[in-house]
Specification:
GO terms for molecular function: acyltransferase activity, transferring groups other than amino-acyl groups. By secondary structure, the protein is of the alpha+beta class. Helix content is about 25%, strand content about 30%. Strands 1, 2, 3, 4, 5, 6, 7 and 8 form an eight-stranded mixed beta sheet that branches.
Length: about 140
């Protein structure tokens, strides 16, 4: 089941998956509390929260129109490759398109996630670069227009 959740609910998975065990309280992003941000969670059949993401309205400087940025997407290691993350992201995209009338979604993707985003139709819009987190990253986006 997919539902809107609070920032605090995203933090344990962000810590485990994205921040190498950093204290959950230190895994908040400044955009989490923006009024135009929302958080979604995927709950499995046992009721466990197994995948999270955050979206906030931020236009990308290279793109026109109204953009939304994906941040903090994480799926529990034992819940990967079951389609939960895909379903969660598709629900977020549908919400952006139909309720918020956004024109595109963009993110700074980790190298390990490039194939995931490619399969969903995201396009690369930068060369690879190093970012705050270990490993290579690139900017990717999904246009709705």
């Amino acid at each position: 089941m997919i539902r809107f959740i609070k920032t605090e609910e995203t933090l344990p998975l962000r810590s485990e998956v994205l921040q190498q065990g950093k204290a959950p309280a230190l895994c908040e992003n400044p955009e989490d509390s923006k009024p135009d941000s929302f958080h979604l969670g995927y709950f499995d059949e046992t009721g466990a929260l197994v995948s999270v993401l955050t979206i906030h309205q931020t236009n990308h400087p290279k793109l026109p129109h109204t953009g939304y940025r994906l941040r903090g997407m994480a799926t529990a290691p034992d819940a990967r490759n079951k389609g939960f993350g895909k379903e969660l992201l598709l629900a977020a995209i549908e919400h952006i398109k139909t309720q918020l009338h956004g024109d595109y979604l963009w993110c700074i993707a980790r190298e390990v996630a490039y194939p995931f985003y490619d399969k969903l139709g995201f396009e690369s819009m930068s060369d690879e670069f190093t970012y705050k987190d270990p490993g290579m990253h690139k900017e990717m986006y999904l246009p709705f227009y």
